[in-house]
Amino acid sequence: MKTDKQQAEDTARYLQEKGCGSVDVGIFTGTGLGGSVGFMPVDIELSYRDLPSFPVSTVPGHAGRMLVGRLQQRHVMVMQGRFHLYEGYSPREVTFPIRVMQELGVKVLIATNAAGGLNAPLQAGDIMIIRDHINLTGDNPLVGKNEDSWGVRFPDMTRVYDSHLSQTAQQAGRHLGLELKSGVYAGLKGPSLETP
């Protein structure tokens, strides 16, 4: 049986054979947000089903496609759809695409999602930049044998969210006349949404 590292390397090699070189930015789109990258010129489009060792999204609103293209002279990989613990996937399977991106050289990861909120000033449709998170799933993708080449066993969690990228997003929002909010994301296993 292949290790997670070997599977990620196999998938990265498959993508390279399909014409995917090194990638600068990875983008994960959440529920209903896959079309948000429709303006990006696409060089490669593949179904998750065609990628070796790749999970398959089963949730409506998650197209299950990987796109590679360019934005502002940067090589970008977009995952249209994610995988969830409530679909029966393990934390390691849920994060497998991130490991593949890591093998392809991704240094910046942008993850989007649609979520409910408990903060009264937030309204449906607001865009919130995550400044911190609380993992309430009871699971962690780092459990198990550590792959030293992927990083340390106990990563520094004090700067998980890049403040420079957050400021850049805030500036872009202001430029477009959008007020971006900021908050703490509470990660739940789902699939239930918040009760009243």
Task: Write up this protein.
This protein is α/β, with parallel strands linked by helices and 196 residues long. The chain contains four helices and seven strands; from the N terminus they run H-E-E-E-E-H-H-E-E-H-E. The protein has helices spanning 4-17, 91-94, 96-103, 163-175, and strands spanning 25-29, 42-47, 65-71, 74-80, 108-111, 128-135, 181-187. Strand 3 and strand 4 (74-80) form a beta hairpin. The termini are far apart.
Structural class: alpha/beta
> Which residues sit in consecutive blocks of at least 5 with pLDDT less than 50?
none
Whole-number mean pLDDT: 90
**How many beta-strand runs?**
7
Overall 3D shape: globular
Largest sheet: 5 strands, mixed
Distance between the termini: 46 Å
Q: Order of strands across the biggest sheet?
A: 2-3-4-1-5
Using the CA coordinates, give the radius of gyration.
17 Å
Strand content bin: 15-25%
Helix content: 10-25%
Number of helices: 4
Task: Indicate the multimeric state.
Answer: single chain
| SSE arrangement, N to C | HEEEEHHEEHE
